[in-house]
Amino acid sequence: MDLEGTVRRAAGGDVEAFAAVTQRFQHMAFGYALSFVRDFRDAEDVVQEAFVAAWFALPAWPSRPHSRAGFGRSCVIGRTGCTDESSSR
Q: What number of other Cβ atoms are within 10 A of residue 72's Cβ?
């Protein structure tokens, strides 16, 4: 998958492209969220919220090459504040 092109198509409203991006990053994002919140169901919620937020934020996403780690981290930390979730426990 050409990640940059797929993200660009998703930013233009292509739902199938966004599904491909989500599938590519879902496991990494879940692992990252789980490492913060330490609860399986909370991590699922964090990731779901992150991808919903990413869908709405994609049109404003900078037009530069996208790295796997950068996109996943941005999705999870940038929107949901995993540190806020973990500090509330």
A: 25
CB proximity list for 4: less than 8 A, separation 6 or greater: 65, 66
- pTM for this predicted structure: 0.71
Residue 74: CB atoms within 10 A of its CB come to 19
Q: What are the tens digits of pLDDT across the range 23-50?
A: 998 998 899 889 889 999 999 999 999 8
* d(C-alpha 87, C-alpha 18), whole Å: 31
d(CA 34, CA 86): 10
Closest alpha carbon to 14 in 59, 49, 61: 59
- What contacts 24+ positions apart, CB below 8 Å, involve 54-58? 54/21, 54/79, 55/10, 55/18, 58/7, 58/10, 58/11, 58/18
CB atoms under 10 Å from CB of 35, counted, come to 12
